[in-house]
Amino acid sequence: MRYKMTILFFFLSSNLWAQSLCRTDIMNKEALVPADRTEQFIGYNFANLWLVTDDNLVYGIIGDEHQRLLIKILTVVKDQKNPKEYLIKGKSWVKGNVCDFNGKILIKEIRVSKRTNFGVDDEFKDKGMKTQGLLTASYEFFEDKNQKYAGRFYGVLKTKWYVD
Asked: Tell me: the pLDDT tens digits for 114-162?
């Protein structure tokens, strides 16, 4: 059965489920410079950010009944021809059903924080942190059609990052 699904990922955000289903402000109201700085940071490889994220910090919701969707990204390779694109392999889990998937993450925007201090009372000032910000990307993952309940995932992901 082929079906379309839309999910929303928020990487590196807190695990808060109290009032709403998931958090949408992973920057904790921190101001961002309005200008897109993608060209400045596109030379960096963001692959490890998606490989080391704790499972409880990745939100995935699927269907009208808002079922929990777990995504585990197993490999991330930055495309050599298009530095904004990352090739992805992983596994998805919904209600006990596990599927393999392949896909891509495409960087849309990289913005820098206006923050001039790092940590409470600048505790990380001398730890080498230079800047931080928010990466916004689109993603599209295709599950293996030979597996049960396979489909396509697409949407937006946001990743908080820093350079040290």
From this structure: 765 555 566 666 666 677 888 999 999 999 999 999 999 998 888 888 7
In terms of pTM, does the model score above 0.85? no
- Give the chain's domain count: 1
Token reading at 69: 């969707």
Give the C-alpha distances (Å, rounded to integers) separating 36 from 50, 86, 109: 21, 19, 6
Token pair 């298009």: residue: 82
DSSP 3-state assignment of 86? strand
The token pair that represents 20 in the structure block: 């709403």
- 3-state SS, residue 56: helix
Q: Which residue reads 């402000």 in tokens? A: 25
Range of the domain at 87: 4-163
Helix, strand or coil, per DSSP, at residue 40:
helix
User: Which alpha helices (H) appear in the chain, and where do they start and end?
Assistant: 38-41, 47-51
Instruction: Mark residue 28 as left, alpha or beta (left: phi above 0; alpha: psi -120 to 50; beta: remaining).
Output: left
Would you state the structure tokens that stand for residue 21, as one six-digit string?
A: 């289903």
